[in-house]
Target: Laccase
Amino acid sequence: MVTVNGQFPGPRIVAREGDRLLIKVVNHVQHNISIHWHGIRQLQSGWADGPAYVTQCPIQTGQSYVYNFTIVGQRGTLFWHAHISWLRSTVYGPLIILPKHGVPYPFTKPHKEVPIIFGEWWNADPEAVIAQALQTGGGPNVSDAYTINGLPGPLYNCSAKDTFKLRVKRGKTYLLRLINAALNDELFFSIANHTLTVVDVDAIYVKPFETNTILIAPGQTTNVLLKTKPHFPNATFLMSARPYATGQGTFDNSTVAGILEYQVPQNILMHSTNTLPLFKPTLPALNDTSFATKFSNKLRSLASPQFPANVPQNVDRHFFFTVSLGTSPCDSNQTCQGPNGTKFAASMNNVSFILPITTSLLQAHHFGQSHAVYSSNFPISPLIPFNYTGTPPNNTMVSNGTKLAVLPFNTSVELVLQDTSILGAESHPLHLHGFNFFVVGQGFGNFDPNKDPKKFNLVDPVERNTIGVPSGGWVAIRFLADNPGVWFMHCHLEVHTSWGLKMAWVVLDGELPNQKLLPPPADLPKC
Ligand code: C2O
Model:
């Protein structure tokens, strides 16, 4: 397996708001590699963002690259991961940003902070899994397990010894920094007999609320407070996670678990906590969209004087993108296992995105050499009357292209993402690089441009970098294009990215020096 510094999950990076990070990545494996700092805004430092062929050519075997960026105006939990092919299945780790010195959290100071990173595991080389899927045009083999901090847990005999244990003291508050680094599955997570208080998502504080279960999509992070019981509970507790699955696709139907264990007080005589009863949490049903909707509706920006929600109140450009799974023709050297002898493809506005291979989009843009690399005509159609949630049309074919949408500096953007049911409805966690956005509205069925915007929340919508486009529904987001560069946007279900559910925005430089992309570093990898 490919790892960083021989560790799995990879090393934890702990920084502070305002810090400048210099991270040298040396490639000692036989794969091309690149690393993305997921959720870091990379203001003016797009060269350090990391997606292969988008902002850089990959780092080749024996080569190195120094990622150089400053963390501006962000604090909370993010993560880093490989951003090429499926290498992020094993190449990932927490990226924790503490507030500036002397700036407290807007909630109870935790006794301890604990990163909990969910992953997905194959008893195979994940690169071979996706290579085979692309070759056959069918779906990839499902994973063999989910993991918590790299460990599948005690629910299966084969992995019982590989269990993450959280040892706690009674009567304390713990900050759990939850990260979903799984490739292809949104996850429910719960700890038996304990309530969690959500305080932060995607490194943005939210209005705190209590819940027994959280829902977390690949690419999302959630900070929760866990208050331990005031008295020794004479029990141990399971924490577990399993998928929220909306598609007809197959998924790994296993449950990952870890153990919450209380330190035994000295006045209690006990030989081993193994003799204590073990309580298990109840998780929502696999397809519990009603839970998913209620949960996402509870997420609101803190919107306090110290942490205001700067929601764009006016919009310069309205965009409407459909998000679909579809098919594309089978190549002559393939025997495709997709629907009717086709191969699976996925698209936004019917374009299945193709990455360049001889350079990166950002280099092509920055050096004025986009001509042979991409076109700036991403199809921006007005809302066409089409029932996106009705019966599948006969033609599910998508088109291919490297088409980008161009935004002048400081454009205020509203983007409606509409799930379609062309090959069945499915929730898609859409991730935008380079920005946070505000989730101003969401709903089921077809977005109605006359009615729905009237209900938008422009006061305290949640701000984040990854949002689930609801299965058979839509979500509306707003962001200010104040970061010059080329910014990838894609489904964080990795198989959908492999199938083309991705695109990129070009944000042009502004007039002032602090509105321009800085020049590329000298060690920027070559293709
Ligand atoms: Cu978490 Cu484009 O990535």
Notes: Residues 126-136 form the longest helix (11 residues). The radius of gyration is 23 Å.
